[in-house]
Amino acid sequence: MDRRGGYLFAIVNPYDTMVDVGVLLEPAGSGQTNISLIYSSRRDANSRAIASFIVPEFVQQWTQIAFEVNKDSVTLYFKCIRFAEREVNFS
């Protein structure tokens, strides 16, 4: 990641107009990065962040991140450590 951030990856709809599933990295102030899990269902008009996490900045460093997605929560693992959990509503 560079200082501007951007999508780590994104799966888009067939028209390339909306992100169905993706991971977005954005700067979040001094020394911090916002990691968002992006999701959209067929009913959504726009992509939305279903869970966001503020972590220490990791510009131009290999860093392990993983998500555990359950029916009502998303957990972020950052540098192989369980970092935080967010409640989510997929409807």
From TrEMBL:
- The superkingdom of the source organism is Eukaryota
Q: Which InterPro entries match?
A: ConA-like_dom_sf (IPR013320)
Q: What is this protein's record name?
A: Laminin G domain-containing protein
Name its species.
Answer: Oesophagostomum dentatum (Nodular worm)
